[in-house]
Amino acid sequence: MTGLHCPLPILRTRALLDRMAPGEEVIVTATDPASVIDFKHFCNTTDNLLVAHEVRAETRPDAAHATLFVYHIRRGG
């Protein structure tokens, strides 16, 4: 979900989770800083669980996106 802005990361993650079985996990990587609020709110208002969240600094040649927000989400039942 890198390079996407709100609400696209959440919408695409929801579509992916809808195709998964309960208990399965997905790892989502986003570059939008607002995704921190969005993913926490999404998991708090659905039966999906935010298992882990981390912020990674990444150096890329183009330096377009140096910060990555990584979310581990478990599909609820």
Can you offer a commentary on this structure?
With about 80 residues, the chain is α+β, with helices and mostly antiparallel strands. It is built from two helices and three strands. It has helices spanning about 10-20, 35-45, and strands spanning about 25-30, 50-55, 65-75. A three-stranded antiparallel beta sheet has the order 1-3-2, with helices on one face. The mean pLDDT is about 90.
- Major sheet: 3 strands, antiparallel
Radius of gyration in whole Å, from Cα? 12 Å
Identify the overall geometry.
elongated
Alpha-beta content class: alpha+beta
The average pLDDT score comes to 91
Q: How many β-strand stretches?
A: 3
Q: What share of residues is helical?
A: 25-40%
Distance between the termini: 24 Å
Q: Hey, roughly how much beta strand do the residues contain?
A: 25-35%
